[in-house]
Amino acid sequence: MGTMSVVPDSSLDSAWASRLRRRRWTDPRLLVGLVLVAVATVAGSRVVAAADDTTPVWAVAGQVRAGDVVRAEGLVPAPVQIGDGGDASLYLPADQPPPGGVFTRDLAAGELVPATAVGDRTDDDGADLPLSVELGDAPADLAAGDLVDVWAVPAETAAATPPQRAARVLAAVPVVSVADPAAGLGGTTRQVLVRIDSSPDQLGGPLTRLAGSGVVLVRVGD
Question: Which of 170, 102, 179 is nearest to 133 (CA)?
C-alpha cells in the first residue's frame, strides 16, 4: 500500500502570519502604551526646557527700609522663571552690577528687588552720621537696617550743677552699618553709622548735644 504525503499549504501559513501581524499592531493596549510614552517624552522635554529658562535678578539678603543705601554686599542673585507674558525688566537684572541710589520702599529679606524700588540719592535724602559707641551701650546683634533711638548720656561729674540727665537726641533712625572693634587690639568701641533726614549743614544741633557725652543706642520697632 502506497504512502500518502501531505504537502503543507503555504497559503494558510501566510494568512495566519498576516492575521498575527494585524492583531499585534491594532492591539489597543499597544496603542495606549505608545501614546503614553509620547506624552511623557514631550512633557519631560518641556520641564527640562522650563528649568533652564530662568533669569537672574537681584534680591535683598536682609530686610531693608526706604531710604537705605543700595549696597552690593546687601544683594544676592536669584534665578526666577518669567512666565508667558512676563517682563523680566520689572526687576533689577543680576547680570549687571547693582545700581547706586537708595531703596524707595521697604523690602523683606529674600524679596526680589523691583526696578521701581530703587531711586537716585539726592541731598534731600539726608546724611550719614557716624557714632562711636562703647561695647555694652548698644544691642550686641545690632545690624544694618535696624531702627534705633540715639541717647546722649552725660559723663558723670560730681561738680555738675544741676545734675545733667540723659536725653534722646535722635528718634527711630536707621542703622546703615556697624563696624566691630579690631580683633586683638583691645578695642572697646565700635563705629555705628546712622542715617538722619537732616542735610549735612543741619547736623550742628545733634552734634552739640552729643559732644562730651556717651552714646547709647536703643533698638526700636520690629
Answer: 179
